[in-house]
C-alpha cells in the first residue's frame, strides 16, 4: 500500500507539472490546453459508451445453432456452474452498475458476460470478439481476463486432485488396468510427459538470458510444462516453472512431481518415455534398436507400455484443441501467462469431467486373440498375475517390477507382433 501511495503521488506531481507547463504555453486558453493535454495522454478522451447485446438472446441463439460449446468451450449447464463460482469472488457493485447503465443506456456487465468474455479469449478468440459481443472496452477486456483467471485458480472446486494414499493409488490403477491389454499393467497410476507452450521471451529487464526460452528440439521459444494424467484422461498433477531449453528429465528432477512420484507406495508407478530415468516408481521403455529381432519380450513390453503412456499425449492434444490461446506465442506477461496455464488445466478437468460430445475419445481397441505354440487359445482371465501380496522382499531389491512384467509376457505368450514385419 505504501508503494502504491508513492506511485500515485509521483503521477500527481507529473500531472501538476504538465498542467503548469501547458498553462504558460497555451496562454490560459482552455480549449488549447485540453487538446494539448489529450495529445500528451494526461487526460482521457471522452468516454465511449458501448451497448451490450441481450445475453439471453445470445445464449438462445447459440443453443439453437449448436455453437455454444464451440464458442465458450463448455456446455450451458457447465457455464452456469462456472458463473456461480465467479459470483462469489467477483460480486457486481449494483450501485455503480446502475449509474453507468443509465449513462450508457445499456445493461450492467453481468458475471456471465465477464466469464463469457474470458472464455472466448482462452478458446483462441480475438480481443475484438469479446469487446463486440459483450460490449466492453479493450482495457477492461484484459483486466477482466486477469480477474477471471485468478478467481478460477483460487476456487477449491476446480483444484487439481492428486495424492499418494493407498486408496487413491488403487482407484487410479484400476482405470489403467482396464485400458491395458490383458491387464498387464496392474499398478500404473499415471502417465507423464512434457508439453512445450509457445511464448514471447520477456524483456531483458525482466530476464537477462532470453536464449534460455529457446528450445533446440522444438525449434521455438517456449516454456516446458510437465503433467501427469490418470486413466480417465484427467490431469492429476502438473507444473509450469521451467524455460524451453530445459529437457524433460531435468524438469522432472527439479519440480514437485519428483517428490510426488517418489512417495508412491510400492508397486504403484507412473509410465514415462525415454526422457525419464527408470525406477521403481517410474516405468520407461527398454532402450535399444531392433528389439523386435533381438529381444521380442522387451519389444512387446515397450508396446504395451506405450499403450498407456500415449494417454498423456492424447490429453495434450485435447487440451490444445480446447484452448486456442496456446495456438500462437502468447504476448502476455510471463507471470500472468503461467496463471493462464494453470487455469486452463483446471478448466480442462472441469470440461473433460462433463464428457462433452466434442471431446469424445475412443478407447484403445483390444488386441487380437493370443495363441500359444500349439495354437491353443490363451484366455487372459485364467491368469492370476502378480499382486502386491505375493511380491517378496528380494524382488524389490533385485529385479524391478518392469522385469517381472516382461517375465509375465514370456510366461503367458503376450507378445505383440508388428503388422509391418514380414519375418
Topology:
Elements: H1 2-25, H2 30-40, H3 55-65, H4 68-72, H5 76-89, H6 94-104, H7 111-122, H8 127-134, H9 138-154, H10 166-179, E1 188-198, E2 214-215, E3 220-229, E4 235-243, H11 248-253, H12 256-262, E5 269-271, E6 282-283, H13 291-294, H14 296-322, H15 334-353, H16 393-397, H17 401-412
Beta strand %: 5-15%
Give the H and E element order: HHHHHHHHHHEEEEHHEEHHHHH
Report the helical percentage: 40-55%
Say how many strands there are.
6
- Unreliable runs, pLDDT <50, ≥5 residues? 358-372, 374-399
Structure description:
There is one protein chain. The protein is elongated and about 80 Å long. A hairpin with a 4-residue loop joins strand 2 (214-215) and strand 3. It is of the alpha/beta class. It has 17 helices and 6 strands. The chain has helices spanning 2-25, 30-40, 55-65, 68-72, 76-89, 94-104, 111-122, 127-134, 138-154, 166-179, 248-253, 256-262, 291-294, 296-322, 334-353, 393-397, 401-412, and strands at 188-198, 214-215, 220-229, 235-243, 269-271, 282-283. Helix 7 (111-122) runs antiparallel to helix 8. Strands 1, 2, 3, 4, 5 and 6 form a 6-stranded mixed sheet that branches. The model is unreliable at 358-372 and 374-399 (pLDDT under 50). The longest helix has 27 residues, at 296-322.
Keywords:
6 strands; 423 residues; alpha/beta; six-stranded mixed β-sheet
Brief overview, please?
The chain has 423 residues and is of the alpha/beta class. 49% of the residues lie in helices and 9% in strands. It has helices at residues 2-25, 30-40, 55-65, 68-72, 76-89, 94-104, 111-122, 127-134, 138-154, 166-179, 248-253, 256-262, 291-294, 296-322, 334-353, 393-397, 401-412; strands at 188-198, 214-215, 220-229, 235-243, 269-271, 282-283.
Amino acid at each position: 500500500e505504501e508503494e502504491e501511495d508513492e506511485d500515485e503521488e509521483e503521477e500527481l506531481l507529473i500531472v501538476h507539472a504538465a498542467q503548469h507547463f501547458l498553462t504558460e504555453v497555451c496562454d490560459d486558453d482552455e480549449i488549447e490546453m485540453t487538446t494539448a493535454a489529450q495529445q500528451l495522454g494526461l487526460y482521457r478522451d471522452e468516454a465511449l459508451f458501448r451497448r451490450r447485446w441481450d445475453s439471453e438472446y445470445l445464449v438462445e441463439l447459440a443453443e439453437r445453432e449448436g455453437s455454444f460449446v464451440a464458442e465458450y468451450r463448455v456446455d450451458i449447464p457447465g457455464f452456469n456452474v462456472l458463473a456461480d463460482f465467479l459470483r462469489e469472488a467477483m460480486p457486481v457493485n449494483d450501485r455503480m452498475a446502475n449509474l453507468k447503465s443509465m449513462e450508457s443506456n445499456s445493461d450492467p456487465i453481468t458475471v456471465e458476460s465477464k466469464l463469457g468474455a474470458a472464455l472466448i479469449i482462452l478458446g483462441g478468440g480475438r480481443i475484438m470478439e469479446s469487446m463486440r459481443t459483450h460490449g466492453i472496452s479493450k482495457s477492461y477486456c484484459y483486466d477482466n481476463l486477469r480477474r477471471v483467471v485468478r478467481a478460477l485458480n483460487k476456487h477449491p472446486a476446480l483444484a487439481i486432485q492428486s495424492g499418494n494414499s493407498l486408496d487413491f493409488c488403487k482407484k487410479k490403477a484400476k482405470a489403467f488396468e482396464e485400458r491395458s491389454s490383458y491387464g498387464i499393467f496392474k499398478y500404473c497410476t499415471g502417465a507423464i510427459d512434457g508439453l512445450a507452450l509457445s511464448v514471447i521471451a520477456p524483456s531483458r529487464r525482466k530476464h537477462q538470458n532470453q536464449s534460455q526460452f529457446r528450445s533446440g528440439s522444438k525449434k521455438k521459444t517456449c516454456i516446458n510444462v510437465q503433467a501427469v494424467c490418470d486413466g480417465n484422461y484427467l490431469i492429476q498433477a502438473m507444473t509450469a516453472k521451467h524455460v524451453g531449453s530445459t529437457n524433460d528429465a531435468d524438469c522432472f528432477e527439479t519440480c514437485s512431481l519428483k517428490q510426488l512420484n517418489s512417495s508412491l507406495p510400492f508397486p504403484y508407478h507412473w509410465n514415462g518415455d525415454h526422457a525419464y530415468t527408470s525406477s521403481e516408481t517410474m516405468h520407461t521403455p527398454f532402450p535399444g534398436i531392433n528389439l523386435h529381432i533381438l529381444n521380442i519380450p522387451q519389444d512387446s513390453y515397450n508396446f504395451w507400455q506405450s499403450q498407456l503412456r500415449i494417454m498423456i499425449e492424447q490429453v495434450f492434444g485435447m487440451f490444445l484443441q480446447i484452448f486456442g490461446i496456446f495456438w500462437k506465442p502468447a504476448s502476455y506477461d510471463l507471470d500472468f501467462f503461467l496463471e493462464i496455464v494453470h487455469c486452463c488445466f483446471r478448466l480442462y478437468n472441469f470440461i473433460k469431467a462433463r464428457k462433452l460430445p466434442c471431446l469424445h475419445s475412443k478407447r484403445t481397441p483390444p488386441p487380437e486373440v493370443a495363441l500359444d505354440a500349439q495354437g491353443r487359445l490363451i484366455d487372459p482371465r485364467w491368469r492370476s498375475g502378480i499382486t502386491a501380496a505375493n511380491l517378496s522382499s528380494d524382488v524389490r531389491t533385485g529385479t524391478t517390477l518392469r522385469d517381472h512384467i516382461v517375465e509375465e509376457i514370456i510366461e503367458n505368450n503376450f507378445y505383440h507382433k508388428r503388422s509391418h514385419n514380414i519375418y
